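Why this split exists: single-chain examples teach little about how molecules sit against one another. For that reason, every record in the complexes split bundles all components of an assembly together and asks for one structure covering all of them. Below is a record exactly as it appears in the raw files.
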Amino acid sequence: MGRVRQLLPALAMAALLVAVWWAAVVETKSVIFPTPLQVVTATLDLVQQGTLWDHIGASLFRVGTGFLLAVLVGVPLGLWMGWVKGAFMTLNPLVQILRPISPIAWIPLAILWFGVGDLSPIFLIFLSSVFPTIVQTADGVHTIDRKYIWAAENFGVSRAKLFLQVVIPAVLPQIIVGMRVSLGVAWLVVVAAEMIALRSGLGYLIIDSRNAGNRYDLVVAGMVIIGITGLLLDGMMRRLQLLKVVGWRYAR
Amino acid sequence: MPAKIVVKDIAKSYSTAKGPLNVVGDINFTVDDGEFVAIVGPSGCGKTTLLNIIAGFVHPDQGQVAVDGEPRDGPSPKGIVISQQGSVFPWLTVRQNLMFGLNGYHPDKKELADRYASMVGLKGFEKGYPHQLSGGMLKRVELARALVVKPEILYMDEPLSALDALTSIQMRIELLRILAEERHTCVLITHDVEEAIHLADRILVLSARPATIQAEFEVPFAHPRNLLSPAAIALKAAILREFGL
């Protein structure tokens, strides 16, 4: 009952938005912009054809692969850059220059290098999420309280133990924040990345629906599904913050 | 018998925007094996810097510190620091914290950790996380984590200052009980004169920055000490006079 009450304002807001949308379409007698009902019908059609799950699955696969690669590369790189000053001095300028370049700008190069298969969107998603991961992880190492490092040095522990039992757990909450940010960005660029996809994905669904006959009901349906999936993904990442080893960071 | 710790001619200054800031100026003293020496001084006088130099975390600009006749070069498990803000790892349980310092092969790490946990009154909290504990209990974890590695020296930097008055006195009594069981050489930095009289065999009084040793007092009372005895009050008055109070 408490949860329902918590959700009430958000549900009311959504209902209001749908009502305004519906009224606006009816009022302007738009023939091309869909009503909420048309969007729902279009979504149900996709479900019946069975293509909706294919699109969602394809997008999740690309985002998941690109994101995991970004974590596998970004976390160790970030730890290294955070710990070794020379590595930071060398690599940080490069990271800061590459970071603001939109993944969309990489599309021509991605096609040149990887063609128009799955690899190109995976590469673009990897690019979009690797930099936030690196930056957050390196920053996490930089902000470890010195007293913990000193305590470890005091006990004369090995470098491996220092890393495994002090540095990594200390940075873990920041790494999780970095992963949340980068998964969000990865999902954000899925449409752009799938503009060059062959036959599947939510981004492809949107672009294809527009190109193949102005099916704006499908365009909006694709947008809504991306939004809801993004929400679910973030909810999953947030669960990582409930892990026992990071409980110290969020316990108040 | 040679002294356990020899502090010889050490000085330290930090460069600031307004020029060099002399924090520690020319300090000499020795600590005998098993002795408890308290260093009291006004806040901001460079006490913490002095302790960090003795414990090996900060290099002095001049002079040197020798432990057991060996010049000190960096921190070592031979002497463990217990500090005011505490450095119990919040991501490890109490037991994992106590096991942290046990390097190399110990057949019974867990049993050893649990024995020290119960020694400082933490029995039943071994699996708890630090954020579930009170300030006084955290201090016990830190003390036990230091004791379990059997250090020859305990360096204490205002260890009880963050605790409320009652808990602080309670911890002093616990500390004395433990020190009676296991003999350690102790160096205590504090601004609390009463705490120094309660715990130490000898008290060094530091001057304002740059810190130098201004006076030295023996504490000739047997344990358990009565801090309200005329002699103890007279000693407190004499130390406070050194601060101009």
